[in-house]
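Let's practice the habit of predicting before peeking. Look at the sequence and jot down your guess about where helices and strands might fall. Then scroll down.
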Amino acid sequence: METRRSKRTFRLVVLSIFSAIIFLQNVIPFLGYIPMGAFSLTIIHLTVIIVAIALGPIDGAIIGGVWGMTTFIRAFTFPSSPIASIVFTNPLISVLPRILVGLVSGYIYLALQKTKLSRAGSMSVAALFGSLTNTFFVLGLIYLFYRNPYANFLQIDVSKLIPALLTVVFTNGLAEAAAACFVSPLIAAPLLRFSEKQHH
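Done guessing? Here is the structure:
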């Protein structure tokens, strides 16, 4: 009973800390978003991926939801980029992909634990897919719902929007994925070890 209570307390403390980190990353310039033209290079996905690996996909999804809700609220109050006030006011774009980052990276890490891949390797692969999940879902849903306003914003014909979005994938998207692969294991591994100690 005492062990279960201490596990629950540890989980709530970690979720609270990472929720606070997400909030700070959203409000402090360059801590979570690095402006790059129409879009911002984000490093907030690292926080979600780290929690998903260390605590599991459900907790990763919770922290992803916190990120999504702060993105959604910020789109109305203090947009992270010029296009954010148009696209991120839609929760399907601001919230859903962020939740999926936690689920995808968490479940992929769990699946890879059953293979011969090293723990660090499993973390990197899970982080890669978690990061790409955010990139593809955000950009894909923008194209689905806002291709005309987004093309107008970029001052290009809508027929040229897919190449423009692919450019974002191969610049911002790959940079974010590379950062996730490298940074996530460095932070997730000690947090996971500490979590495992709490569970034994």
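How did you do? Helices lie at 2-27, 44-55, 57-77, 84-87, 91-94, 96-112, 119-154, 161-198.
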